[in-house]
């Protein structure tokens, strides 16, 4: 294996439950690192689906035409956009819908394998449609694809904008969710779109998640690298809503990449449908979490072709890989109760922890020590840990270290893995994250 980094992890709590890898909630404070948090992740392997039909649900204000690019790019898959009332060829109808009504449109096709894709608001709609079809005893989708969406048990911050006057509401949508800039200036377009936009955002704001058992369909999440509303950090939370396996893929683009980058999204969907494994691209970090017995198979994908590192925990292995033959990659997994002293941290880092609120200190120390160990694994054991420091331990990340006054070449990405924190050091300025949680 070319460029494999040494593991530098303390043992962590066993994470295996009922034959699957149990990757639970965020350690410490939610939202401060990428967190894979679910129930028993991937009790079954994510076998390639045999579906030939994909039903698509739109983002707020969107119609069936939002999927025109995806339809053209997915020539081997029948893409069926569901047209909601109040838009495009249903513009004369009130912009109102129900989950039961949407499920009625999908139900006749459930005799054969199918998949669902929902973008932004559509992801939440698709998730609820899956649960409604389950209540009816109908076939579940072979995949639930979700793009640019907060998990259903989390609020959508942008939804509060629906309470604003028209100008301020539109300004928020344009700045934060890639809505058409013409909405600011074209009165006719605004008059046409405002009723459906306000109706859709009212639905999002009033949505109340009702806990039920996780769905039995694998979930594949897509995040836009430049999406400031629902990026990779937020979308990892979808993992807790399935028992059948989870994947995350990050692609270039903003919130509405389904509209703006359909070919790239189509390529990722096609690769998933074909169970094709691709090597990491130059700005991509691929992570695999699964049982130790399976990790050698994963490593063989990268031998001689990519730089990979591993860290083992009781019942769990994390494999990280980056493209080409970079000088190294560092991986560290650490659990809170195995956190010893802070001798690996600089004086400034120790001072940051001491100055933090008492309830945050152990969390910050855990992240800092895991990050420092990953950094040392990447940079080489001869490096003095205290000479390379992280200037702000409260930064949600990714973290960029300082080597004296100059930025170090390494950037550190954090993930929460149940009772443990993982840190991965990579030589990138920006990171497109791909995650596979295996059975």
Automatic annotation (TrEMBL):
Coiled coil: none
Annotated Pfam families: Thioesterase
Record-annotated Thioesterase domain positions: 53-271
Taxonomy, superkingdom: Bacteria
InterPro entries the UniProt entry points to: AB_hydrolase_fold, TEII, Thioesterase
Protein family per UniProt: Belongs to the thioesterase family.
Protein name: Thioesterase II family protein
Taxonomic classification: Bacteria, Bacillati, Actinomycetota, Actinomycetes, Streptosporangiales
